[in-house]
Amino acid sequence: MGLFSFIKEAGAKIFGSSAAKAATAEELQKELANHGLPSDVSISIDGDKVKVSGKAVSTEEAEKIILALGNTVGVGAVDSELTVTKEAAAAVFYTVKKGDTLWKIAEEHYGKGQGAKYTEIVKANTPPVKDPDLIQPGWVLRIPPKA
Questions:
Q1: Which CATH number goes with the domain that contains 117?
Q2: 87-146 residue pLDDT tens
Q3: Residues in a beta bridge with 56
Q4: Do residues 78 and 25 touch, judged by C-beta distance below 8 A?
Q5: Which residues contact 112 (CB under 8 A, 6 or more apart)?
Q6: Same domain, residue pair 120 and 57
């Protein structure tokens, strides 16, 4: 699927350290499992770059795996070699900026007056969005294609 960039100081701290250091491959496997994503993919780490390979059942699942890995503190890039069984239109990846709201992001991507579609963005981003009122600058979100 390619190389995806992230802000390594943003995202979930999954291993208890405050330093912007990537988690181990085993900790990242557990993070995938915690989000209900397949943890049988292969993960390797080189500095702040995570390489993931294996199979995903859909484009959406592959994108969620990439985001779950990339939206953790210490990860600056995810190199995805995931193969997808059921191809679909790829989502747009958007990096949250200070002052953004999901309503504003929805209107930016779906058009004026379409802010209520923020719920589609929330559904497409679990992880990292658990509370739609608490998005953080630096997070990378999936913006699903227009229906």
A1: 3.10.350.10
A2: 888 899 999 999 999 999 999 999 999 999 999 999 898 767 778 888 889 999 999 998
A3: 84
A4: no
A5: none
A6: no
